[in-house]
Amino acid sequence: MANDLTEKEARTKLNGEGPRLQLGQYIQDVVRIFEGAAHYLKTHDTSTIKNDLAGRVRDYPVGTVIIGFGVGFLLGKILK
Fold it and tell me: Could you say which of 31, 33, 45, 75 has the lowest number of CB atoms within 10 Å?
């Protein structure tokens, strides 16, 4: 049994798997999302952004309300 754990750990190190690699991938995903958002904001004018946002609210009203409550809660905690 102990030998199996050692082999698994060795494979994990050789393959570059593990918590550090997963964290790096999550960070890269977040960076890609923010880069995409920045590109969208740079390439669209305010009326287009407003219309896109209104469309999202129309398509996902429940999710919009939940996000609104979440953001309000967080702001309330921060500003308290």
Answer: 45
Written as six digits, the tokens of 7 are: 């082999």
b or e along 27-66 (b: 16 or more beta carbons within 10 Å of the residue's beta carbon)? eeeeeeeeeeeeeeeeeeeeeeeeeeeeeeeeeeeeeeee
Q: Express each pLDDT in 13-41 by its tens digit.
A: 555 566 777 888 899 999 999 999 999 99
Full domain range(s) for residue 61: 2-79
**17: number of Cβ within 10 Å:** 11
Q: Is the pTM of this model over 0.85?
A: no
